[in-house]
Design brief:
Length: about 210
């Protein structure tokens, strides 16, 4: 099987179900950003695995720990979301079993994960500047891509209001999780988050 089909050379692509659309169609933009988010999360996992190998640590990494396996489940969720966004007639494809459905319980799982991580972090009283350890910085990149994916889904809500039931809340919660994971990665690396201090706060602290 060849990796290239030449079917998109004219600027169009095929949605799941056979409908042809331009590659700048909002649906393509939305699932393309979800795919980008998945890749960025994969880069964070790879950075963590390399750090673990360099440190002689066991499986699970050094700055993500048990969260690494859970992020693998998030990547699976993102494929499910991407399939839904790429479907020309999602209800029909769900009935046929062609595409899976993202369970609402996955949002609860993210919230429990966020709460557990937050319990081990210092209280947050200022905005955090992205950065710190390489893994944390990559997770901040993932967070911003997640917000862009969220905006892409919002652009589809008028025509596809069901996206607001599970997929949109999931992405909203996932961005919060990625932010919390970045903070936790810095904690594990022994690095403090850098806080953004407006000029007034800087003057007060001087």
């Amino acid at each position: 099987m060849k990796i290239y089909t030449k079917g998109g050379d004219g600027g169009e692509t095929t949605l799941l179900g056979g409908t042809r659309v331009r590659k700048d169609d909002p649906r393509v933009a939305a699932y393309g950003t979800v795919d980008e988010l998945n890749a960025v999360i994969g880069a964070a996992l790879a950075l963590d695995a390399d750090a673990a190998a360099g440190a002689g640590a066991g499986a699970g990494g050094v700055m993500l720990g048990a969260s690494a396996e859970k992020l693998g489940a998030v990547q699976e969720d993102l494929f499910t979301i991407g399939a839904r966004l790429a479907a020309s007639n999602p209800a029909r494809l769900v009935r046929k079993g062609t595409i899976p459905v993202l369970a609402a319980e996955r949002i609860d799982a993210l919230e429990g994960w966020i709460d557990a991580l937050t319990a081990g972090l210092p209280a947050l009283d200022a905005f955090v500047l992205p950065g710190g350890s390489p893994v944390a910085a990559q997770l901040h990149v993932a967070r911003t891509v997640c917000r862009r994916a969220e905006r892409g889904v919002v652009a589809l809500l008028e025509d596809q209001p069901d996206l607001g039931e599970v997929i949109l809340p999931y992405l909203n919660r996932l961005s919060d999780l990625l932010f919390t994971l970045a903070r936790d990665a810095n904690r594990r690396a022994g690095r403090e988050d850098t806080h953004w201090l407006p000029q007034r706060r800087r003057d007060d602290d001087a």
